[in-house]
Structures are given as C-alpha cells and as structure tokens.
Design brief:
five-stranded mixed β-sheet, DNA polymerase, domain 1, alpha+beta, Enolase-like, domain 1, binds flavin-adenine dinucleotide, binds FE2/S2 (inorganic) cluster
Length: about 500
Amino acid sequence: MEATRQAIEFFLNGKPRQMEVSPHSTVLELLRGPLALPGTKEGCAEGDCGACTVVIGEKKKKNESENIFSYRAVTSCLMLAPQLDGKHLLTIEGLAEGEHLHPIQQAILDDHATQCGFCTPGVVMSLLALFLDNPQPSQEDLLAALEGNLCRCTGYVAIKSAGEHLRTDWLLEKIKAKDLRPAYLEEVEKILGAEKEKKVLSIREGEKSFHAPRTAAQLRHLLSISDSKLLNGGTDITVAIKKHGAPIRNLIDLTSIEGMSEVRIGCEEVVIGGAATLRKVAREVEGVLPVLSEAIGKMASHQVRTLGTLAGNLANASPISDTAPLLLALGAVLHLEGPDGSRKVPLSEFYRGYKQIDLGKEEWISEIRLPLSGEKFHHFEKVSKRRALDIATVNGAISLTLDDRRILAAKVAFGGVAAVPFLAEKTSASLLGREWNLETVEFASTVALEEMRPIGDVRGSSTYRKDLIEGILIKHFLACVEEKGWEQ
Ligand SMILES: Cc1cc2nc3c(=O)[nH]c(=O)nc-3n(C[C@H](O)[C@H](O)[C@H](O)COP(=O)(O)OP(=O)(O)OC[C@H]3O[C@@H](n4cnc5c(N)ncnc54)[C@H](O)[C@@H]3O)c2cc1C
Ligand code: FES
Ligand code: FES
C-alpha cells in the first residue's frame, strides 16, 4: 500500500492540531488527558448519559464542485480519537467569547437549567448541534436532540424550557445564525473545504493499530495482511474494548471509504452504504420507508445514532437488534465484498447462530439493499422499559401485501425470542389467504408460540416474552386498522 501517516490532523475549537494519539483511545480520553480540556464530563463512559457530548463538524461533498458542512452531536466516550482526523471538534470550551456567554449557555443560565452542572456541558453541546444542523427545529426535534442527556439533579423541565426559549427565539429570528455559530467556523470550513486528499492514516502502538483506508482496494489489502476487526461508528466495539476488555488489536475504520456512507433511493430499491449512520439512513428514507425512520428513532439516543451505522447493527448480530427484524420483514439483501469479489446474501440467511454470521474474515458489508413497494403495509414495534436509551426485551416487525383485507403475502419477524433475529416463516405462512382481522391475529399467535420458544433472562421471563409476542401481533393489526382507516 502507498505511504501512510501516524499523526491525526484536526481542528479543535477553531485551531488546527496535529498530534499522535493512541489507536484505541477515545475522544473523551484525549480531551480530558493530553488536551487538558476537562469541561467535557465523563459519566458512564458507555454512551448512556450524554455528559461527554461534543459536536463534530465535517465536510460532505454536495456535488463535484461544492461542499457542505454537517454538524452532529456525538458521545465522545464512544468515538475513537483517530476518527477525529480531518474533522472539527467543538467542545464547551470553544463557545464563550471572553466574558460573553454563548446564547445557549445564557439561556441555560436564564432558565435556571443547571444545578450541580455536571450534565450542563453535554446539554449545551447537544443544543448547539441541533441549531447548527437544523434550520427549522420542531419541538419534537428539540426533545430528540436532548433525549440522550441525563440530568441527575432532575432539571429536565428547566432544560426543556431553555431549549424551547432558544427554539422560538431562533424561529422568530431574535437569535441570528451569526450569534449561534462560533465565529471561527467560517474560516475552518474554508480550510477543510479546500483540503486535498491525504495519505492513509495508519497508527501503531505496541500490539494495537488503527487504519483508515480510503478505497475498497486499500481495505481489501489491509484485511489480507492482518487479523483485524472492522470498525464503523464504534458504538458496539468501543464499549466491547473499553468496558469488557475485548481482545481486539487491529482496527480498520470503514468511515473514510469513498461512497460507503451514502444512501441512494431508486425507483425499486433503497441502497444503503455499509458505513451510513443510523441518523443518515433515518433522514434519507423518511419519504419512502417511514417505518425504518421510526424504528431507528426508537434506538439508543440521538448522539449514538449519529455515530452508529445500520451495517454495524446488523453485523453485531445481537438477538435484540432493533433494525434486524424490520429488515428481515422488508426482505433486505446484503452485498458483501471480499478477496474473491462480491456476493449477495439475503438477511434471512445471514444469521447462523448466536453472534455468528455468514461473513468471511476478509469480507465486509458494502451495501444493504431494500426493495421498495408502495403497496405494502409495514409496522415495527419495540417493547423496552424506557422510550429512549434502552434496548428491547422483545421487538417485532411485519410486512403485508393486502388486497383490501385479504393477506396476499406476509413476512413476520421478531427479536429477543431466539439466539438470532428471527424470521417467523411458519407464522408468516399461516397468514396467507386469510382476512386480516382479530381472529387471524389470534390464530397467528398460536402458530407463533409454537414456532418461537423464548427463554427467560434479566429483561423478562419466558412467559412475559410469550405475552409480548401476542401483544406485538395485536399492535401490528391495530396499526394497520389505523393506517387504513378501517372499522375493527
Ligand atoms: C448507549 C447505547 C445504546 C444503544 N441502544 C441500542 C438500541 O436501542 N437498539 C439497538 O439495536 N442497538 C443499540 N445499541 C447498539 C449499537 O449502537 C448499534 O448496534 C449500532 O448500530 C452499531 O453500529 P456501529 O457502526 O457503531 O458498529 P461498530 O461498533 O463499529 O461495529 C459493530 C460490529 O459490526 C461490525 N461491522 C460494522 N460495520 C460493518 C460492515 N460494514 N461490514 C461488516 N462488519 C461490520 C464490526 O466489526 C463489529 O463487529 C446501543 C449502543 C449504545 C452504546
Ligand atoms: S460518559 Fe456517559 S455517554 Fe459518554
Ligand atoms: S444539573 Fe446536575 S446533573 Fe444536571
């Protein structure tokens, strides 16, 4: 492979930095350690509290000649420091100008939205990303932006009201973009926009390494010479390395590979790149597959969805992955690349056993393809203890082709009921040719309970999970009644 470089180059609150970082260190460790910026707090160190939220700015190609810049809130405890390369890192220290607080900090103060102050930097950075990213934030957008920020002093009412005051002042143009955008953004955007492609980043430290290939050919070469783990958003891997001591030494980052983060909407299918983030997928498919946007909206928190990818969620092979049951019901097909070229694997054949997938050591998911059909009814349901930042006890999805109420084709899938996300083929077949009504739901439930034998664990007993299977089928039916405007 061509020459590589060891040091990352990025901007920190408007200033260029070039430094060597440890291959598996997180952005949070970098900030609170070598960079000596302790304003960003460490709470859980596994993506659950939002205290470590920072904003990442980066160049996105709009077309051949034009760039746009995106800003997203991320949990810095989950993002690896080498992934800062080529980006702009904004932290709480980069907002106030001398004695003058940034308008978001001032709103927090005016609304008494800070008590002990531990969560406050994270809250401010989440709000900053919201306003930099979204010119017309709705009340719903505001709540989604804050869903990953926990406040132990329970100051939510005040925090929400500070956000709401900012939102209305922003929409009424009492606050202008120039007040909210730190003054140095323009200059940094100019420099990053003009930046030419650099050598591939390849960092080694003892037995650990991090590589960020730019092309599929470079990725193929790296996979052939080392025993490596693919890294995308890192929301699963970073926790595995940092919290559970997973023996991972070499990481190959997919997020810099040209074209891998794209989502393309065609007439007959949606093509999702193997490094497209959950947030990007949710936004891009909203018009054609709203059910997928809604399902993604029920995952994790905003700051985790801006890092985590759809491919990572599928390849992680958790039996309670939220996207897997829906993608099974939608008939997703994975495109895999490897040393011998490419091959296609239907998602229904991808899972082979607990955490076992049909993916060779040197292969990767390059695309996820979803067929489009306007005629179908789709629904996804997740049962968890909390709305945000909680994993499912059981989740389920359905896709139906209906002729009025008669079921012509059906795919029913569940998570949390088996060792792998489960396409319930017998349950699906039992629906064919029947009228879609409560009697059919009852019949399908008996088949489903024969087909699935969920075990009990800390999140729910086997009996509870069986009840949830029935409950989810009823919810699918009720959602259909509502969508079609039927009388029950
Ligand atoms: C606080 C928190 C809350 C969460 N909540 C939820 C939730 O509600 N629902 C849910 O389903 N998940 C949840 N997750 C899990 C996680 O966010 C998702 O699984 C996410 O989609 C993983 O994507 P990633 O890009 O971060 O994967 P990574 O951590 O980068 O990788 C995960 C695995 O996939 C492999 N991989 C990644 N990309 C590819 C590719 N293109 N080809 C082949 N292999 C690949 C990696 O090698 C690794 O084995 C949560 C995680 C956290 C930290
Ligand atoms: S420290 Fe809790 S989300 Fe990062
Ligand atoms: S103000 Fe104390 S945690 Fe939020």
